Amino acid sequence: MDYLDEMEQFARANKIPVILRDTRAFLENLCKTEQPQNILEIGMAIGYSGSCMLRSCDAHLTCCEASLPNIALARENFEKLGLANRVSIVTGDCLRTLPTLRGRTFDLIFLDGPKGLYLEILDLLLPLLDKHGVLIADNVLFRGMVEDGQPILEPRFVHTVEVMRQFIDRLQHDKRFITKVHHIGDGLCEVRYRG
Ligand SMILES: C[S@@+](CC[C@H](N)C(=O)[O-])C[C@H]1O[C@@H](n2cnc3c(N)ncnc32)[C@H](O)[C@@H]1O
Predict the structure, then answer these.
(1) Does any ligand 1 atom lie closer than 6 A to the CB of residue 113?
(2) At 37, which CATH number?
(3) How do the residues of the chain divide into helix, strand and coil, expressed in percent and rounded to 5?
């Protein structure tokens, strides 16, 4: 079994949420075809999605992650895959660490961090997006509950569903960007500067 598949199995067995198979295929294809140089990921977990992206291009990956146990596991995984020298980990709450990246830009940003904070994170991320880059946000259709007319299955999901609706709406009404929502995995939002 490929080590990436082992990582996926470990994550699922330990209830660490990681990207779904078709999201992985989407990201790998994006990295192969667009060959980004500088990737930023918010929410690294054990480094599964980051490793999938790095194995599909020659980029450097900067990851923002708050969980120390996840960071320790991710470091081990990047080492095992021979990717450690292409990764920088920014430790801590991304709302606090993202402003420290100001002045840098990334040609691929993958947002997969705390779902309830996507709007606040978006404000911090957009200045970091290269004019020719792409932002991909995961879980924007949140278990099928975000689109019009869909029932919200449990009260604890109300906030996240509302955040995702506002996230998509804000981007679709922002004339600077072309925003697409893909029915891939748990819903992927793709954002690029117009022109
Ligand atoms: C869905 S998981 C990321 C999965 C990973 N992208 C993958 O597919 O392999 C979300 C991660 O965000 C991290 N996280 C949650 N809140 C955070 C915050 N405020 N700042 C930084 N990371 C956070 C969690 O610790 C968790 O590892």
Answers:
(1) yes
(2) 3.40.50.150
(3) 45, 25, 30
